[in-house]
Amino acid sequence: MVGRHGVRSASLTKGERRITPHQWHQWSVGAGKLTERGKLLEKQMGIFFREWIESEHLFDLSSSITNQCLIYANSLERTVNTGTHFIHGFAPEESLEVAYNKSIDFESMDPIFNNVSHRSTGVFKQKVDAEASYGAGENGLQEVFTLLEQDAAILANVLDMPISPACTQGDTCSFHFENAKVYLHYNWMPRVTAGNIYLAQLAASNLILQYYDMPESEGTIFGHTITTEELMAIGRIKETWCKYAMGFPTVGQDAAHLLLEKLNDVIRDSTLQFVYLVGHDSNMASLAGALDIKPYTLPDTPECHTPLGGKIVMEIWEGINGKEFVSLNYVYQNVRQILDIQPLSLNNPPMVHPLFLQGVKTNVDGLYTMDDFTGRMSEAIDSYAHLNEYTPYDVNLDRNVDMLDAVDIVRHISNKQCPFFIESVADCNKDNIIDIDDVIDLVKHISAIIK
Fold first, then answer.
1. Is-contact 238 303, C-beta < 8 A?
2. Which of 6, 57, 261, 264 is the 20 to 30 Å CA partner of 254?
3. pLDDT tens digits for range 176-191
4. CA 159, 160, 163 angle in degrees (round to 5)?
């Protein structure tokens, strides 16, 4: 499984401090560290997984399981500590320890988990823009972030932004998300720029952390009573930003390339029965994008795509004929379980939400064949070398060759705008002229595919 670290303390920026007149929560640990609540919650997850695994007879419990397990974390305190406290619940009697990259300075990013762009221009950039736009729907990316301003108004009200130092000093009085686009820069984490969305998603993330760490004032932040719907709205700001920055195939296959290779290696390692790779929300988003997981919304959590302490769990099952199958689920604790630090067990399990791959069929049990799953893994890994290349005939870069591509050629010939039009792709018959002959050639190609 690949998971996000547990509940941590906030890392407040100067901008976040200025957009509210209130004193932010005083944490008992340093900035960005795993909290006591995070440790206890992760231990409960470990207890649950051990109980579940024992019920499925994954291990021969008459001997040590240490050599059959790998807990590998990013080289940061909150990820290593997450793995450590998972072990406290999962295998307290074993000599199992968290592995991490000790060849780099502690508190620096392991390249496996460092979710940065390895390219940022050319066809790659156009493909990233196209996938985000198509994922947003017919009205495009800007419409998604314009609608998100309704959630941002709730966030601004909780922060009391109109009487904040930022506003009274003539700076920031509200959140606004105009000119939305995916921003890519070499060796930087992909992000969405849209007005001051970056500040808004930081504030939303840290408000959720504060909400989780203050159960004694449950339902209240900065004197405002927060309904469940308002908490979900605040969470949507951060989750939407993360999804459109990193949650689509091209950008995910680029940013998550080393994580995919690590995951592929441990899946193929026959000596390992249980593996837990501990990273961040950006890793969860880019992995879902790289594997082209169908859009999902996790219930009962404000972080509806990448919840704190959540894990994408890949279970390998063997059929009676020896054939292997894979199930794919998101496992996480809901708001009530987090606030109450509820003991987890088979009788009180965490949330389990099934995930599905685009374009791959499951059997009647909802399982993928191992060949189909590893095929998708290999496709995602192999695509890395070709991310700056285009697919012949895919004029609009939507990863499908269909009549919409022919329509875009016609629009181009008619001098109408086509956002992701690449002339070298549209010149289907390679005569260096884009005209109706290219439309005819494309339609013939589509007809051949259909036949």
1. yes
2. 6
3. 999 999 999 999 999 9
4. 135
